[in-house]
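Need residues for this backbone.
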C-alpha cells in the first residue's frame, strides 16, 4: 500500500475537548472498518486549525470515501514518496 499525507482544515481543533475528539477518532475507526483493509490510519498531528494524517491506502479514492462517509474535511491528499530523518544524513 502507498503512504498518503492528508491535510484537513478544522478551525479551533486544539480547543475541542478531549471527549469530543475521541468521538471524532472513533467515527474515523468505524468508517475505516466499513471500508476494509485497503485503507488504514497510521497517526495524525493536530495543530491550531488543521489535522495532518498519515494513511496507508491502495488508492486515494478510498481516503476521499472515508472523509465523505465520516463527514471529515479532506483538503489535500499527497502521496508520500520518501520518509527521511537525521539517520540518513551523509557523514
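Answer:
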Amino acid at each position: 500500500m502507498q503512504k498518503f499525507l492528508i491535510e484537513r482544515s478544522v478551525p479551533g481543533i486544539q480547543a475541542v475537548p478531549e471527549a469530543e475528539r475521541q468521538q471524532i477518532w472513533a467515527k474515523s475507526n468505524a468508517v475505516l472498518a466499513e471500508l476494509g483493509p485497503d485503507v488504514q490510519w497510521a497517526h495524525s498531528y493536530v495543530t491550531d486549525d488543521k489535522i495532518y494524517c498519515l494513511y496507508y491506502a491502495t488508492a486515494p479514492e478510498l481516503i476521499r470515501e472515508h472523509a465523505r462517509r465520516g463527514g471529515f474535511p479532506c483538503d489535500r491528499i499527497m502521496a508520500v514518496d520518501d520518509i527521511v530523518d537525521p539517520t540518513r544524513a551523509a557523514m
